[in-house]
Amino acid sequence: MTELTIAMPKGRIFEEAYEMLIQAGFDLPEDVEISRKLMIEIPSEKIRFILAKPMDVPTYVEHGVADIGIAGKDVLLEQGRAVHELLDLKISKCYIASAGLPNTKLNDIAPRIATKYPTVASHYYREKGEQVEIIGLNGSIELAPMIGLADRIVDIVSTGQTLKENGLVEYEHITDVSSRLIANPVSYRMKNERIQNLVKRLKKCVK
Length: 207
Ligand code: PRP
Fold this sequence. Notes:
Layout: E1 4-9, H1 12-23, E2 39-42, E3 47-52, H2 57-62, E4 68-72, H3 73-79, E5 84-88, E6 94-100, E7 112-115, H4 118-128, E8 133-136, H5 143-147, E9 152-157, H6 161-165, E10 169-177, E11 179-183, H7 185-190, H8 192-203
Parallel strand pairs: 1-3, 1-4, 7-8, 7-9
Antiparallel strand pairs: 2-3, 4-11, 5-11, 6-9, 6-10
The structure holds 1-O-pyrophosphono-5-O-phosphono-alpha-D-ribofuranose.
The site of 1-O-pyrophosphono-5-O-phosphono-alpha-D-ribofuranose has 12 residues, from strand 9 and helix 6.
C-alpha cells in the first residue's frame, strides 16, 4: 500500500473534520488537539496527517507534499490553487458577506473595503460594476469600520456573533462556504485507487 499524506486544518475546522475522519473509521489518537504535534502517523492505514494553518492547506497540496487536504471553499476561492476539488464535506458551513455600520450608504467614489479575502472581494465588486479600494487585513476585520479604516468589510459570517457584538450589520451575502476535500493532481493520478477509497469512505459520512 502506498503512503498517503493528508493536510488537516488546525483551529475551528479541525474538530468537525476530525469527527468525520473518526466516523469514516480512521483510528486517530484522541489527544490530537491537545498535543502540539504537527504530524501524526497511522501505520496500520499507511496514512500520515499533517496539521497546518487553514490558509496553508492548499499550498501543501499544490506542492504535492500532501496528497490530500481539507480546505474551506473561502480559501480555495481566494487562492485559486492548482488542486482538484473532490468532495464537499458539508462541514464548517458559513458564508462570506459584506458588512458595516448600520444605516451607512456607500456614497464615496471608491469606498474602502477591509478584508482578508482581497481576491474574492475585488471579484465580487468588479462583477457588480462597483469601484472599490481593497484594504488587506489578516484578522479582527470587524475593527475596520468601527475605527474608521474602512466603509465595509468582506468577511466570513458563521454564527453572526462577531458582527453583532461589534455593532455591525450585514449588507450583502456574497457566497456560501463549506469544507472541501482536495487533492494534488499528480497524486490523484498516481494514487487514484487509494484516494478513491478515501473519498468513498468519507462520502458515506457526508450529511
Ligand atoms: C472569523 C471571521 C469572523 C468570525 C465570524 O474570524 O473572520 O471574524 O470568525 O464568526 P461568527 O459569525 O461565528 O462570529 P476568526 O475567529 O477566524 O478570527 P480572525 O479575526 O483572526 O480572522
